[in-house]
Design goal:
5-stranded mixed beta sheet; binds zinc ion; Nucleotidyltransferase, domain 5; 2 domains
C-alpha cells in the first residue's frame, strides 16, 4: 500500500505556511508564501488550493495518499461546522464556510481550527508539555494567543473560544485593547506595546531583537523593560493558576525569545502572587516546536479527526 501523508496549513497575518507531513507528524516538505500577496478572500482560498495541488504533484503523490488537509487559522473558528467567524488581522472574512469550500475544490478531507489551539495540541502531544495533563500554552507576539488542555484534552468552551489569555483583564482602568475592551493583558505585553515602552526608555527607535540582545548583555534599561513585561504576565498567570491548578504553562512566540530575564520575572511574580499549593506545582516551560507548532498541530488534528 502506498505511504500516506497529511497536508497542514498555517495561515497568519503575514505568512501562509504549507507543509507535507508523514503520519508521525514529521515535516517532509514546506513552503512559505506571503499572505499579503493575496488581496481578496477568494484569491487566498485559490492560493491555498493551488499550493496543496502543487505539493501533491511535486512530491509525486496522488490524492488517495493524502489522509487530509488541516488548517490553523488566526481567529475565532467554528471547528465543528468548519466556519471562519472572522479574522481580526485579515480583512474580508465573515462567516465563511471554509472547510466545505476547500473540500469541494480539493476533493480531500479538510479540518479547520484556531491556530493557538493547534499549537497547544502540538506542544501537548509532541513538544514541551508532553507528559503534563493540565496545561496553558500561550504565544506572545503582536497578539497573544492561548490554548488550554484540561485533563489531557483540548478545552474548547461553549463557542470554541476558550483560551483567550491575551484578553484576560488585568486592570479595570487599563488602556484600550484591539479586542474592543480595555485593560487586557495583550494591551500591556503585545509586541507593539513592548516596543513602545522600550522606545520611551531608550529615547530612540529600537527593535524587539535588539531589546533582547541588550538584555542578554545585562543592559539595565533593556532588563527593566522585560522585567516589567514579565511582571504583567506573571500577575495574569497567577490568576489562571489559582483558577485551574495547572501543572504546566508553555510560553512561545517571538517575544518569548527574550529569554531568561523575561522567564525569571514571570516565574518570580507568579510564585509570589499565586496561592501556594497551586504555585508550587506549576512548571513554566519554553515552547519546543517553534514556528512549526501550528503545522504539526494541524497534522495531529487530521489524524485525530479521522
Ligand atoms: Zn483585549
Amino acid at each position: 500500500m502506498a505511504k500516506k501523508f497529511i497536508i497542514s496549513i498555517d495561515l497568519g497575518g503575514t505568512n501562509l505556511k504549507v507543509a507535507l507531513l508523514d503520519l508521525n507528524c514529521q515535516i517532509k516538505d514546506k513552503e512559505v508564501l506571503s499572505t499579503r500577496s493575496f488581496l481578496e478572500k477568494d484569491d487566498l482560498i485559490l492560493g491555498i488550493v493551488h499550493s496543496v495541488n502543487r505539493f501533491i504533484k511535486y512530491n509525486n503523490l496522488n490524492k488517495a495518499q493524502i489522509l487530509g488537509v488541516g488548517l490553523g487559522l488566526p481567529g475565532p473558528i467554528d471547528a465543528k461546522n468548519g466556519i471562519v467567524h472572522f479574522f481580526p488581522n485579515i480583512p474580508g472574512w465573515k462567516e465563511v464556510k471554509l472547510r466545505d469550500i476547500l473540500r469541494k475544490n480539493l476533493g480531500l478531507s479538510v479540518f479547520i481550527d484556531n491556530d493557538a489551539k493547534l499549537m497547544s495540541l502540538a506542544e501537548f502531544k509532541m513538544g514541551a508539555a508532553k507528559g503534563f495533563n493540565n496545561i496553558l500554552c500561550m504565544t506572545l507576539g503582536t497578539g497573544i494567543g492561548g490554548g488550554l488542555i484540561i485533563n489531557s484534552r483540548l478545552y474548547r468552551g461553549f463557542n470554541n473560544a476558550a483560551g483567550e489569555i491575551g484578553h484576560l483583564p488585568i486592570n479595570e482602568n487599563g488602556p484600550d485593547c484591539n479586542c474592543g475592551s480595555s485593560g487586557c493583558l495583550e494591551a500591556y505585553v503585545g509586541n507593539n506595546r513592548i516596543i513602545a515602552e522600550a522606545k520611551k526608555a531608550f529615547k530612540r527607535d529600537i527593535s524587539l531583537e535588539e531589546l533582547s540582545r541588550l538584555a542578554d548583555k545585562h543592559n539595565r534599561i533593556a532588563m527593566d523593560v522585560w522585567n516589567k513585561a514579565g511582571r504583567h504576565l506573571g500577575f495574569a498567570l497567577a490568576g489562571v493558576v489559582n483558577l485551574l491548578n495547572l501543572d504546566a504553562i508553555v510560553i512561545g512566540g517571538g517575544v518569548a525569545k527574550a529569554g531568561n530575564v523575561l522567564f525569571d520575572s514571570i516565574i518570580k511574580t507568579l510564585k509570589n502572587q499565586a496561592m501556594s499549593v497551586q504555585a508550587k506545582r506549576v512548571k513554566i516551560l519554553k515552547a519546543k516546536l517553534g514556528n512549526e507548532a501550528g503545522l504539526i498541530g494541524g497534522a495531529i488534528m487530521v489524524k485525530e479527526g479521522l
